[in-house]
Specification:
The protein has helices spanning 14-25, 41-51, 59-64, 78-85, 104-111, 142-153, 165-175, 177-195, 199-220, 224-230, 237-247, 250-269; strands at residues 7-10, 34-37, 54-56, 68-71, 94-97, 116-120, 130-136, 156-160. With 279 residues, it is an alpha/beta fold.
Length: 279
């Protein structure tokens, strides 16, 4: 397969746009080789105008001649989309899903396709700094595997796994992870404003502190606990702050949040409605 490989992107939302942009700008795919489909004509037309790709409001039309069909839709919309796609996707075509929770077996049964890849990218993929965990069915051949890896690398880093169970875990840890990071940033910024910093200054201090901390960790190759210990002087400000974080259950709250996201990912794959976490 080459840059002329016909790719249909089902779903013109944020991830659909991200994939369209990255495939063309980073992956070297030709705009005319991409077709994007969605129910809202204005949204499809906007993407066509922005990237020079083809567009349609018909999933059937988009998938009929595609060698790769990318499902960039919400898992709750799979059944509706499958009505137009089942029987339309070519037998040798690759189906690549970025839907949270939906298993490869479910995709095979719902779509009538055999060559399926399930993946979980995350929000930083929008700037080519994401990480994608992915798995595939046995029917995916070497050329399709290589092309999928190339697609995911346009979004940032990628990790191929043999065990599909890692996908729900990745959804909770890296897929949902940016939300945890943004909440932590928000809390730190608000604390800075509460102390008296102008908001813009508080934002700059927090963003650079977190960015620098990550780079420092990558350069030192030390366990985070060791680095935390190095900046925590006995009786100092860090020790005082960490004492209150531990007392407030910060570590436990993060662990429980990730576990809750993991459980929710599995629920989405089973088509279950939201469960009350208190029950």
């Amino acid at each position: 397969m080459s840059e002329k490989t016909h790719i249909a992107i089902i779903g013109p939302g944020v991830m659909g746009r991200t994939l369209t942009s990255s495939l063309i700008q980073t992956g070297g795919f030709l705009p005319e080789a991409l077709t994007i489909a969605g129910p809202t004509a204005s949204r499809v037309e906007a993407l066509c105008s922005e990237f020079g790709v083809r567009g349609t409001t018909s999933n059937t039309e988009a998938a009929a001649s595609a060698e790769i069909v990318i499902l960039a839709i919400k898992p709750q919309r799979l059944d509706q989309a499958a009505k137009a796609l089942k029987g339309t996707i070519q037998s040798q075509a690759l189906v690549l899903s970025v839907m949270a929770g939906v298993s490869m077996e479910a995709l095979q049964q719902t779509l009538g396709a055999k060559r399926v890849i399930r993946s979980m990218p995350n929000t930083p993929a929008q700037i080519g700094m994401g990480i994608t965990v992915w798995a595939q069915t046995a029917e995916v051949d070497e050329a399709q595997h290589a092309l999928a890896r190339r697609i995911f690398q346009t979004l940032g880093q990628e990790i191929f796994v043999e065990d599909e169970n890692y996908l729900d875990m990745a959804t909770a840890l890296s897929g949902t992870g940016p939300a945890y990071a943004f909440l932590f940033m928000e809390a730190m910024i608000e604390a800075g404003v509460h102390m008296g910093f102008p908001r813009r200054m508080a934002e700059q201090l927090v963003v650079q502190t977190l960015k620098g901390s990550v780079l420092f960790y990558e350069n030192n190759h030390e366990h985070p606990a060791r680095l935390r210990d190095d900046v925590t002087s006995p009786g100092g400000t860090s020790a005082e702050a960490l004492y209150y974080l531990e007392k407030a259950g910060f570590r436990t709250a993060i662990s429980r949040a990730v576990w809750a996201a993991y459980q929710r990912s599995k629920e989405l794959g089973q088509g279950r409605a939201r469960q009350d976490p208190e029950k």
